[in-house]
Design goal:
- The chain is mainly alpha-helical.
- Strand 1 and strand 2 form a beta hairpin.
Length: about 190
């Protein structure tokens, strides 16, 4: 399967990964050199999409050589911005990703997708987080496939537990409007510090 092939590439020798990167970079150059002719043969839109596909392959090859994970988040941000560029000035996009990827603060010492997007989009980048008290979800684990994950009730004192105790099945809370001082501000600060 494609997923297995991707993991085999991850385990490949550095020389094989470098060879793949060199090949994809070369093809990206071929795209750039033939932009005018290939756009006339198809359309500018079709060319741009095909070139972006080649760019994604190049990003994947770069990521195979990156042990810290910074390439992946930069690539995700670049691809999100490419989509926004295609939509024009009024375009909007919703990105559904794990907290670490959408965080403006980054993770493990690396900038995250959110760090890059917040820097580029400034006030137009809005993080909308999801929380839940208990339940389950499915997620893909490397080399294990799709697995079920069960979550116990949130510990007392956490944001998830507090929101669950509010008694609403669904609740949207704009944390940008929270007070800067007082007991609520102190409680939110304590959540950040733990």
């Amino acid at each position: 399967s494609d997923a297995v092939a991707g993991w085999e590439l991850r385990d490949a020798a550095k020389e094989k990964k470098q060879s793949l990167l060199t090949m994809t970079q070369r093809w990206l150059g071929v795209f750039d050199a033939n932009r005018e002719a290939w756009s006339k043969a198809t359309s500018i839109r079709e060319f741009d999409i095909a070139r972006q596909d080649m760019r994604v392959l190049t990003q994947y090859a770069e990521g195979l050589l990156d042990t810290g994970g910074a390439v992946r988040d930069r690539a995700m941000a670049d691809n999100t911005r490419w989509i926004l560029d295609q939509e024009g000035p009024a375009g909007k996009v919703v990105v559904w990703a794990h907290n670490a990827h959408i965080s403006k603060a980054g993770f493990y010492g690396n900038p995250s997708q959110g760090t890059h997007l917040a820097s580029a989009l400034r006030q137009n980048y809005l993080v909308f987080g999801f929380a839940f008290d208990e339940g389950g979800f499915q997620a893909v684990q490397p080399q294990k496939g799709l697995n079920n994950h069960l979550v116990e009730p949130a510990p007392i004192g956490t944001l998830d537990a507090a929101l669950a105790r509010a008694g609403h099945d669904v609740l949207a809370l704009d944390l940008r409007q929270r007070p800067a001082t007082g007991p609520v501000a102190e409680w939110f600060q304590s959540l950040v510090e733990t």
